[in-house]
Design goal:
This protein starts with a strand and ends in a 5-residue tail after the last strand. It has a 7-stranded mixed β-sheet, sandwiched between helices. By secondary structure, it is α+β, with helices and mostly antiparallel strands. 30% of the residues lie in helices and 34% in strands.
Length: 148
């Protein structure tokens, strides 16, 4: 079941992030050390200003966040991956956004980019961001309002 985030979900969100964030960077040529979400003030602030939704079965196992027309987060606990939870969260977020949708993804993360392509997203640009102070190339992806 997908529902709106509440403050009791905070520790679950931190745990899911900790278990999932480095997977996003697994195709990079260098290794990264985890910077916990509660220690990454920029990412935490961006998450907290967003509309956050959690996927809960007997416990919170995934979450997604959007801010205006941007998907800012989509993470699923590794123990339940491959069960369609990420797709359900993505579809829920897309249903909350009218018009064009934007997101960023690590340039090297082709499996996730391929998932987004199935939902009508296309790569529109490249930018440099950082993770734990280390530069990372990311792709901007956009889904037009006519997609879907």
């Amino acid at each position: 079941m997908i529902r709106k985030y509440n403050k009791n979900d905070y520790s679950s969100v931190l745990d899911i992030y900790a278990r999932s964030k480095l997977d996003e960077l697994r195709f990079e040529s260098r290794n990264f050390n985890l910077l916990p979400l509660d220690k990454d003030q920029k990412r935490l602030a961006q998450l907290m200003e967003s509309d956050i939704y959690v996927y809960e079965n007997s416990e919170v196992v995934g979450y997604g966040a959007r801010y205006k027309n941007e998907i800012r987060a989509l993470f699923v606990h590794p123990s339940v991956r491959g069960q369609g939870i990420g797709k359900e969260l993505l579809e829920h977020l897309l249903g909350e956004i009218n018009g064009e949708v934007r997101l960023q993804v690590a340039k090297t993360n082709d499996p996730v980019k391929n998932l987004y392509r199935k939902y009508g997203f296309v790569v529109t640009g490249e930018l440099e961001t950082t993770y734990s102070g280390v530069p990372v190339l990311a792709n901007q992806m956009v889904r037009s309002s006519s997609a879907g």
